[in-house]
Amino acid sequence: MTIIESTAEINLPIAQVYQFLADLNNHQQLMPENIYNWASTADTASFTIQNMAKLAIHISERVENEKLIAVPTEKPPFDLSLEWTVKDNGNGTTTAKHVISADLNMMMKMLASGPLQKLADYQTKKLKEILG
């Protein structure tokens, strides 16, 4: 399993950060330009990654003010999970961590791990920009 992580410190209480992340409708704001055909509800999202694949995900697990896990609703080219965890820093700020777990063979790992890391980094950066 390939694990890709990115972290950001957000200047908001944990409940506000979790509330934003818990609604997949908000995740469109976290996506780079190469993501299009976005459609979402609070629990599901589908989108196309330019020159790659169409992906549909749903929330498989929610733990209030702790974590949120999304997995594909249809069989993807490889097993994948997207996890956001939030941790209260005790000073009114929250650490948000985005973890992408992908079951990649060596060839796919060489091709996909760079773009997946860029995606994770982009999403945590955007989360910090949007929430402050």
Automatic annotation (TrEMBL):
CDD domains: SRPBCC. InterPro entries: Polyketide_cyclase/dehydratase (IPR019587), START-like_dom_sf (IPR023393). Gene3D superfamilies: 3.30.530.20. SUPFAM superfamilies: Bet v1-like. This is SRPBCC family protein. It comes from Pedobacter chitinilyticus.
